[in-house]
């Protein structure tokens, strides 16, 4: 009977693995079983998310002169021999300083099937700490993108921007999502899904092939809290500790003034929140992308993955705001209440995950409003 149940489980995995869409948790586990994902140490019990896999730092790190891409004819290891300033151990923990660039070989390696490709993104908590991360692969000409059939190691570029951080072997700063086919919803499909499931609380919904538009929330009573700005010259943040640091030591509150606008100072880091509450149905995943850069020189949302069940009633949610990590570049920039700052792209899942974001997991940001990372209290 147990053998039969095992065959049925493998069969379900094989069936869903052949469908187009974002691979769910059980198919990510199947990639490990089949050798498509390889790790030198045992997998963490909570490492697989509903539609992504957390990636873990390996035991060594390299301080490098500058960010780089290996290009079509080079491995990352080749480039590290040229650009690394020094190598150091992460086994007992190490501090990564702001303004510096580091490259860390990851524990996970890929041997992807010929029809499966992958993309990476910082984890939500990583983005909310203003840690700039990008995944590198051998011969890559783009960051965070792994072509179908890629076989080889993975590396993480890390550059803390506001706070110095303490990391160690096994720390998880980035995540990877696996795709088969073209699962992104068109404007027509997205409009139909919104009509069925009401994906956003907005009364007037701006939908295009680029996704559902999200705007900034700077409303409220005069003097009410609308955001945070990261302080400079703070203590370090241990990325593996929760509720360990007082908010006031690291963040300056931003209160509503005037008609609902703020001026983003160049190279300062802000935590703001979307005006709309959103949710992701169990059979879909979503990703935040920047709005048209022609509207202003600012970057929004370092960490873009939204798992199935985010803000959804099936996972104990009632709609969740999208927390926005915002940084202006070069010149001061005025953000006004209701200004569009990003778009949420929805993609079909190859199958519904066994566990959803929220009720089935110890999810940090379900039903969130304006919320800092899990490290602060």
UniProtKB/TrEMBL annotation:
It is an enzyme of class 3 (hydrolase). One of its GO terms (biological process) is 2'-deoxyribonucleotide metabolic process. One of its GO terms (molecular function) is dCTP deaminase activity. InterPro entries: DCD_C (IPR053811), DCD_N (IPR010550), dUTPase-like_sf (IPR036157). Its EC number is 3.5.4.13. Keywords: Hydrolase. Residues 20-182 form the 2'-deoxycytidine 5'-triphosphate deaminase N-terminal domain. Residues 188-376 form the 2'-deoxycytidine 5'-triphosphate deaminase C-terminal domain. The keyword Hydrolase applies. This is 2'-deoxycytidine 5'-triphosphate deaminase.
